[in-house]
């Protein structure tokens, strides 16, 4: 069984540019999560999809971040325009249901210069 | 926010036993996860405790005391490959699937 995959693994962009991160969850997992780890801090929740619907987006920092999950399969997280403080590692995770373990992807390391 | 505390770093030698503690203060506690993360890789699931007590899974065991807001991960017969970051994460019933993480404990195993 393929795990959660994320693309790209690394991205270096300049302040003001746009970046789109992609996550492919484990097949059949309705729940998809985005998290972020800023250097020196803990992993923090961004949002949660159930199929194509946003169940909880209370962790999204501001309206420069837009997440989508059209068709309820893969998800994208777009940052536009990127700011310096957006640098960090963005993790995606998926789960079969809410009470079971979340399977994480390897993350996308975003650096905003 | 949720106060989830764990030591920043720990060291141990091969073959030894190490206990990584995690304390939390949260409302609506549902359960506690432990994840292992090697540098540059995805966090991988180790255990999930909902009820009080010890759960053993091979060389790894996890304990939970809901009344004390306390958990620990016990690693036995340490191996070099156990060098990694260990993440404690709380699941609250009121916030669906969202996990609240501690900062992680970086464990280094020496030969």
Strand and helix layout:
The complex is a heterodimer of chains A (113) and B (111).
Chain A: E1 5-7, E2 10-13, E3 19-24, E4 31-37, E5 43-50, E6 53-56, E7 65-68, E8 75-79, E9 88-95, E10 103-104, E11 108-112
Chain B: E1 3-5, E2 9-13, E3 18-25, E4 29-37, E5 44-49, E6 53-57, E7 60-65, E8 70-75, E9 84-92, E10 99-101, E11 105-110
Parallel strand pairs in B: 2-11
Antiparallel strand pairs in B: 1-3, 3-8, 4-5, 4-9, 6-7, 7-8, 9-10, 9-11
How would you describe this structure to a colleague?
Chain A has 113 residues and is mainly beta. Chain A has strands spanning 5-7, 10-13, 19-24, 31-37, 43-50, 53-56, 65-68, 75-79, 88-95, 103-104, 108-112. In chain A, strands 2, 4, 5, 6, 9, 10 and 11 form a seven-stranded mixed beta sheet that branches. In chain A, a hairpin with a 5-residue loop joins strand 4 and strand 5. With 111 residues, chain B is mainly beta. Chain B contains no helices and eleven strands. In chain B, strands 2, 4, 5, 9, 10 and 11 form a six-stranded mixed beta sheet that branches. Chain B is globular, with a radius of gyration of 13 Å. Chain B starts with a strand and ends with a strand. Classes of the chains: A mainly beta (113), B mainly beta (111). Chains A and B meet through strand 4, strand 5 and strand 10 of A and strand 4, strand 5, strand 9 and strand 10 of B.
Summary, kept brief:
Chain A is an all-beta fold. Helix content of chain A is 0%, strand content 50%.
Supply database-style keywords.
heterodimer, A: 113 residues, mainly beta, seven-stranded mixed sheet, four-stranded antiparallel sheet, B: 111 residues, six-stranded mixed sheet, 0% helix, globular
The largest sheet of chain A, given as strand count, sense and whether it forms a barrel, is:
7 strands, mixed
Number of H- or I-type helical stretches of chain A: 0
Order of helices and strands of chain A: EEEEEEEEEEE
**Uncertain regions of chain B: pLDDT < 50 for 5+ in a row?**
none
Shape of chain B: globular
* Sheet having the most strands of chain B: 6 strands, mixed
């Amino acid at each position: 069984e393929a795990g959660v995959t994320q693309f790209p693994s690394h991205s270096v962009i300049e302040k003001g540019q746009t970046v789109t991160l992609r996550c492919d969850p484990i097949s059949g997992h309705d729940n998809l999560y985005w998290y972020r780890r800023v250097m020196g801090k803990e992993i923090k929740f961004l949002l949660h999809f159930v199929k194509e619907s946003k169940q909880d987006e209370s962790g999204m920092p501001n309206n420069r971040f837009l997440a989508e999950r059209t068709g309820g399969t893969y998800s994208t997280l777009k940052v536009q325009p990127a700011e310096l403080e957006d640098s960090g590692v963005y993790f995606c995770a998926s789960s079969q249901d809410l009470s079971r373990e979340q399977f994480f992807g390897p993350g996308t390391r975003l650096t905003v210069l | 926010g949720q106060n989830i505390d764990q030591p920043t770093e720990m060291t141990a030698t091969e073959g030894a036993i190490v206990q990584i503690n995690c304390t939390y203060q949260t409302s609506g506690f549902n359960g506690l996860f432990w994840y292992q993360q090697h540098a540059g890789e995805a966090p991988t699931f180790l255990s999930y405790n909902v009820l009080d007590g010890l759960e053993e899974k091979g060389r790894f065991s996890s304990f939970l005391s809901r009344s004390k807001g306390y958990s620990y991960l016990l690693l036995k017969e340490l191996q070099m490959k156990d060098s990694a970051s260990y993440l404690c994460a709380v699941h609250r019933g009121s916030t669906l699937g969202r996990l609240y993480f501690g900062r992680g404990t970086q464990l280094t195993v020496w030969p």
